[in-house]
Amino acid sequence: MALYAWLLGKNRQADTASCRVGTSLWLLSCVWVLGTACAIKGAYVPVDAYSAADNPDGEYTIRPGDFIAVRVFQHDNMSAQGRVRADGHLSVPLLNAVAVAGHTPTTLAAQLQTRLAEYINAPSVTVSVEEVHPLSVSVLGEVRQPGIYALENNAGVLQALAAAGGMTAFAKKHVFVLREEKQGQPPLRILFRWEALSRAEGKAACFKLRPGDVILAE
Q1: Mean pLDDT score of the chain, rounded to an integer?
Q2: Measured at the alpha carbon of residue 58, what is the angle toward residues 54 and 62, in degrees to the nearest 5?
Q3: What confidence tier does 133 reach under pLDDT thresholds 50, 70, 90?
Q4: 65 to each of 9, 19, 87, 123, 145, how far by Cα in Å?
Q5: Beta-carbon count within 10 A of 103 CB
Q6: What pTM does this model have?
Q7: In CATH, what class is 67-131?
Q8: What does CATH list as the number for 45-54+134-217?
């Protein structure tokens, strides 16, 4: 009888332990399901891991719609000025259509000097941005006033959200910037956390928008 009582007690302990393990596993599974439900769907790159192709020194990058002047010293007939076309090109004497968007004035001048060296001796080229095209971006999703907004150049994500009236109460506190890195390729999704944006932490604080960017609050 004593042995039976001892075995019965062991069985009860085992059942209790098994129940505890089962409960723990159930709780873990619930946490996993809830975490999965709140997870961000689709591929994305956190802004802190994003490496922009912009010039790290902060020099302005020429964009479509900008009005620029290309001056070739002592060769006015080879100089040019005009508004950068939507395809990012500008007509330059002898060189025809030149891809200028995406370059800084300094790097573009160096490239033009190299190309013009085939036609004239030791060319000296300067490039200046005479008029900057306004920055225009789309702000969509959980914002109070979705739409297309013209912002000041070098504006960031916070300025775009403010222009759209801020985020709604239904927002999940994360924001994406959809950016076309390569023409014809799907846009890259760059993730911003609201905490980092509001506290101006990490790369979120210095991220600059480009024309054509789409800001999506979720």
Answers
A1: 81
A2: 55
A3: confident
A4: 83, 69, 10, 27, 26
A5: 20
A6: 0.62
A7: alpha beta
A8: 3.10.560.10
